[in-house]
Request: fold
Amino acid sequence: MLLETRELTKDFGRLRAVNSVSLEVRRGDVHAIIGPNGAGKSTYFNLITGYHVPTSGEVIFKGRRITGLPSHKRCKLGITRSFQITSVFPKLTVYEGVLLALMSSNGVTLNPLSRAMNYFKDEVWHILEDVGLADHAGVRGDSLSHGDKKRWELAITLGTGPELLLLDEPTCGMSPEETEATMILIRKLAEERGLTILFTEHDMGVVFGIAKRISVLHQGMLIADGEPQAVRASEEVQKVYLGGVA
Amino acid sequence: MKAGWFRQAWWLILVAALAALAPHVISEFYLMILGEALIMSIFALAFNLLFGYMGQLSFGQAAFYGLGGYTVAMLLTRLQFNFWLGLVAGVVVAGIVGLLVGYFCVKLRGIYFAILTLAFGQLLFVIIYKWHDFTGGDDGIQGVFPPEALRAPIVYYYFILIVFAASVYLLWRVVNSPFGYVLKAMRENPERTEFLGINIARYQLMAFVLAAALSGLAGALWAPFYRSVAPFYLMWVKSGEPVMATILGGSTTFFGPVVGTFLMTFLHAYVLGFTYFWPVIMGSFILVVIFLLPGGILGFAQEKLREKRFKGVSPDGRDQDAS
Reply:
């Protein structure tokens, strides 16, 4: 077990966005969280990464209770995330973004006098090649296409050396071809680097093609959790989610 | 390789040569103005470490500048302190107060950070201004002399030039270091930076202390240069000077604050020669720059150069993906 949440609950005023979600994420899995808009997927993510503090419940990572830990400490433990709204660095180049992540995860960022560009050259290129951004290394964030921004996000997240990678709608806003390419990339990275991936998605086709496990959120509650076939067969899921799409 | 290095740095060598020759060419009046511009440039560069690189607008930076000046002035006139130790003390005092003030300020961002730095700055100003017995109050402190060897304007000018060059070198190293990259990342996107495993408040505090200490250094150089200090050195008006100079020169470039400071200082000296209404002229000048050269003088030039270099690549980079 890599990650576990126990009766995790988050209220915003009178709205219960996440309602007592108990979930286990196994090491090495590609695990999808699906649910219609407003199901609480992003809030649930934010509870795991430390962006929100839960109203009640626990988050346990590698057997350690991390419920109250700030985000940067969770990152050091091996949890990292990408953002749904591509939230990158507009004035930094693709290369610099990945370099930053590597410098941070290797603990050299307190060094105020050495030349940053001399660090981790091979590692940066390795990651850029892995995600297919090597020919865009010198391009600034604000000049990237949407799909490339998403890939850059992924490259930066890889640079932080994660064990658990949280991807919030990694294919949001992509064309079908880009979506497929991204999903293949994610699966490849999970296998090659031994990552555990937890991601949210609203495109059902994408999820069933790649995830080993699927959890379904609806109105903040976990209504199904298991193998793709089992989830697809669940009556409740068909009623609240699949039925709505068809 | 060596030729490549020279192609990039030739102008730096040229400027250094000009600065070294200047005292033998220009009048003593303009030599004083040049010295002032160099000192204020250190101040503006320190400010821009926070503003341009870290993305936080400090509107109380003059407090540290003034503290540096007052520390030197009080140690030299009251305790007949060694000049060099006095300078070091000025930097240290500014840095320590920076640590205390920064501890509270770095918890905030944007306008809240600006307002809190302004409030702390004014608080320190009022303390210096009102505490007559200790600081001399609104009389300030006069008779702050550098040691005999540095007393001639030309010698003190060279001394300032060396300290300026050392400060530029130090800051250049800092902004290109891993620490400097963290500052830039925090400017661009603090939230994302935190998810790289960075403790934002800690890095911002470190930069704040460094900027405070360097502002203190500028003040500590100024006091013996001008032979006196006055409370208004800590005031918000003084804090506005590096803000204006940096916006004028370009906050996104390393040397922007220096260019802006030189323009402001020399324009001030020149315009004051025939009118007391210099703020009107300065204000019009800044308006023109903001409207015609967005990003400041160097910032605008840099952006134009970049566009030229990237010509042919569509802004979203899609034509490279087409294959």
